[in-house]
Amino acid sequence: MKLTFNDLTVNFSHLKLESILSDWEWLIGKNKLPILITAFGEPFVQDRKNGNVYFLSVADADLTKVADSPEEFKEKLNDNEFTKEYLPAQAVGDLKTSGNILKAGQVYSYKIPPMLGGEFVPENIEPCNIAVHFSILGQIHEQVKDLPEGAEIGEIKFKSPKPWWKFWG
């Protein structure tokens, strides 16, 4: 299956840039805005103060600097090694081939997130609303970040900036 750049990324222009990653502020701060989101719901964010571009791994709760400027980031998107590392074409192709297709406003997300024992296997991946994906994973990571590896988790509590039924639709 031949994939395009649009298959590996999602359009998020309908979302408020200032709030889409609000549940990740504990890790990324308040000065970073998404500039590109992969099909797996992992954003590249730009620091509004210095222009640096970072990759936020929502699976690992890890923020990695990838470029000193948006221009350098655009150049890197033309580098095959860079795109292989950050835009997993094989995984997207496998999901699409199996009939797991994203609709507008969705990213691939986890049924059981990795930090709660979920695995990165096709059976654990499903389409999810972009805002819900970022909100849920950000809140879970924030609540478990200080726990030792293998700790038993009794419960996770979610806060919702709007009624839950408005996330869908």
Quick structural overview:
With 169 residues, the chain is of the alpha+beta class. It has 6 helices and 7 strands, in the order H-E-H-E-E-E-E-H-H-H-E-E-H.
- Please provide the count of β strands: 7
Low-confidence stretches: 164-169
Provide mean pLDDT, rounded: 90
Spatial arrangement of strands, main beta sheet = 1-2-3-4-5
The structural domain count equals: 1
Q: In percent, how helical is the residue content? A: 25-40%
**So what's the overall shape?**
globular
Radius of gyration (Å): 16 Å
Q: Give the N-terminus to C-terminus distance in angstroms.
A: 30 Å
Proportion of beta-strand residues: 15-25%
Q: What are the secondary-structure elements, in order, as H or E?
A: HEHEEEEHHHEEH
- Helices, by number, come to 6
Structural class: alpha+beta
Largest sheet: 5 strands, antiparallel
